[in-house]
Design a protein that fits this description.
globular, MgtE N-terminal fold, about 5% strand, CBS-domain, mainly alpha, three-stranded mixed sheet, 3 domains
Length: about 450
C-alpha cells in the first residue's frame, strides 16, 4: 500500500473509525492487507484482524509474519479459528495447526468433522519439508472410463473446493495414478470422447516423503504448474501447485543464506532479542575458537613480524582475498548441489574448474599486488613474496571451497551450514603460512 493510504488507515485506527477501516480493507487484495498488518504496531493486530471476514482472514493469516501470527491466533475465538481453517487450502491449514500448542490443536481438531480431522492428522504426520508436508489434498481426479462431458460436469461440481485447476488427474478404481489430462485437451475433445483416449502419461510425480528441494527441481526441470503426490504404491494423495513451490524456493534460498553465516532461519527481523542471541551465540563461539587457532598460527611467525612490522599491514590482504575467493567458490558449489547440477559423475570436473579459476585469479591479483608492493616499498623480493602467497592462497581457496561442501554432502551434513567457517579458517591459515613463511625465508 502507498504511504498515503497507510497513513489514512492508521488514522482510522487511532480515531476508532473501524467501520471505515473495514470498508477499505474489504476491497484490498489479501497480500496487501497482510502487508498492512505486518507494518502496524503489534497491539493493533488483533483488532484489525477481527474486521476481516473468514475467507479474507484465511488468506491474510497465511501471509502474516510468523512472529505476529501467533499473537493473532491467540486472540481468535476457537469457533472462528475453525471457520477460518475451513476456508484455507489443506496444506496451509495443516501448517497453521502445526504452529498451535498441542492442547489448542487437539481442541480445534476435536471440533472438526471426522473426515477433516483424519485429513489434517495425516498431513501433520508428514515432515514439513517433504512433498507430503507441502501438498494439498484438494484435487480433481476422474476415472479413465469417464467421458469428456462427465469430466466437465465433475469440474463444475468441485470447482469451489479446488482452486487453480491446472490439470485433471486420471485414476483407476483403486485410486492408482494412471495419467493426466490437460485442460486444453478437455475443452477441445468431443463430448463423448473417453478419458483414456486423450489422457497423457504422467511426466513426473512426487512420492509423499520426497524432500521439497527435489520437488522444486522437478518443477524447474519440467516447467510444471502442478505436480501429483503419490505414496509408494502409486495411490494419488494430493497435489503441489506452483505457488507452493515459489514459497519453497524462497524458503530454501533463505535457509541457505542464513546457514552460510551460521544463523537459524527462524531468526527474523522481529524476533525477540533474547531468542536471536540464543540462535547466534553458538556459531559466534565456534568462530571464536577458529579465530584463536588462526592467531596461534600467526604467533609462530612473531619474530618475523617483529623484525619487519610492515608485514602486519599486508597480511590481511592475502587472507582477505583468499577468504573472498573461497566464499565465491563455496557459493557456486553449494548452489550447484542444491539445484542438482553437481552429481557423482561431474564432481571432479567442477573441482578442477574451481581450482583453475583460483589459480588464474591468483596469478592476476598476485601480479597486481606485486607491482603495487614494489612501487610502494621498492623491494622486488617483497612483491614476489606477496604475489606467490596470493597465488597459493587462491589455489587453496579453489580447492577447499569446492571440496569441503562436496565432502560434507557425502557425510549427510548440510554444506551451507558448516562450510563457510571451515573455508574461512583454512584460507586464513593458508594465507598467513604462505605469506609469513616465504617472508621468513626470503626477507629476514
Amino acid at each position: 500500500m502507498v504511504n498515503l493510504l497507510y497513513d489514512q488507515l492508521i488514522e482510522y485506527i487511532e480515531n476508532n473509525q473501524f467501520e471505515l477501516l473495514q470498508e477499505v480493507l474489504r476491497d484490498k487484495h489479501p497480500a496487501d492487507v497482510a502487508e498492512f498488518i505486518n507494518q502496524i504496531p503489534p497491539e493493533y493486530h488483533p483488532r484489525v484482524f477481527s474486521l476481516l471476514d473468514n475467507e479474507m482472514a484465511s488468506d491474510v493469516l497465511a501471509e502474516i509474519h510468523d512472529e505476529f501470527r501467533s499473537l493473532i491466533i491467540q486472540s481468535i475465538r476457537r469457533d472462528r479459528l475453525i471457520s477460518i481453517i475451513d476456508e484455507m487450502e489443506t496444506d496451509e491449514a495443516a501448517d497453521l495447526l502445526a504452529e498451535l500448542t498441542e492442547s489448542v490443536t487437539k481442541n480445534v481438531l476435536d471440533r472438526m468433522e471426522e473426515v477433516d480431522r483424519t485429513t489434517f492428522r495425516q498431513l501433520m504426520s508428514y515432515s514439513e519439508d517433504s512433498a507430503g508436508g507441502i501438498m494439498q489434498t484438494e484435487i480433481i481426479a476422474v476415472k479413465q472410463y469417464f467421458k469428456r462431458n462427465q469430466v466437465i460436469e465433475y469440474i463444475r461440481k468441485n470447482y469451489e473446493e479446488v482452486e487453480n485447476i491446472h490439470y485433471v488427474y486420471v485414476v483407476d478404481n483403486q485410486n492408482h495414478l494412471m495419467g493426466v489430462l490437460d485442460i486444453g485437451k478437455i475443452l477441445l475433445a468431443g463430448s463423448l470422447t473417453v478419458v483414456s483416449e486423450i489422457m497423457t502419461e504422467v511426466i513426473a510425480a512426487a512420492v509423499v516423503d520426497m524432500d521439497q528441494e527435489k520437488v522444486a527441481s522437478l518443477f524447474r526441470k519440467y516447467d510444471l504448474l502442478a505436480l501429483p503426490v503419490v505414496d509408494i504404491e502409486n495411490h494419488l494423495l494430493g497435489r503441489i501447485t506452483v505457488d507452493d513451490i515459489l514459497d519453497v524456493i524462497e524458503e530454501e534460498a533463505t535457509e541457505d543464506a542464513y546457514r552460510m553465516v551460521g544463523l537459524n532461519e527462524e531468526d527474523r527481523v522481529f524476533t525477540k532479542p533474547i531468542n536471536s542471541v540464543r540462535k547466534r551465540l553458538p556459531w559466534l563461539t565456534l568462530n571464536l575458537f577458529t579465530a584463536i587457532l588462526i592467531s596461534s598460527v600467526v604467533g609462530i611467525f612473531e619474530e618475523t613480524i617483529a623484525k619487519m612490522s610492515f608485514l602486519a599491514v599486508l597480511m590481511p590482504i592475502v587472507a582477505g582475498l583468499g577468504g573472498n575467493s573461497g566464499t565465491q567458490t563455496l557459493t557456486v558449489i553449494t548452489r550447484g548441489i542444491a539445484l542438482g547440477e553437481l552429481t557423482i559423475h561431474n564432481t571432479w570436473q567442477a573441482v578442477t574448474k574451481e581450482i583453475t579459476v583460483g589459480l588464474i585469479n591468483g596469478i592476476i591479483i598476485g601480479s597486481i599486488t606485486c607491482l603495487i608492493a614494489y612501487l610502494v616499498k621498492g623491494d622486488p623480493r617483497l612483491g614476489f613474496v606477496l604475489a606467490v602467497a596470493m597465488i597459493c592462497n587462491m589455489f587453496i581457496a579453489g580447492l577447499v571451497g569446492s571440496l569441503i561442501p562436496v565432502i560434507l554432502k557425502s557425510l549427510k551434513i548440510d554444506p551451507a551450514l558448516a562450510s563457510s567457517v571451515i573455508i574461512t579458517m583454512l584460507t586464513d591459515i593458508g594465507g598467513y603460512i604462505s605469506f609469513l613463511g616465504l617472508a621468513s625465508i626470503l626477507l629476514v
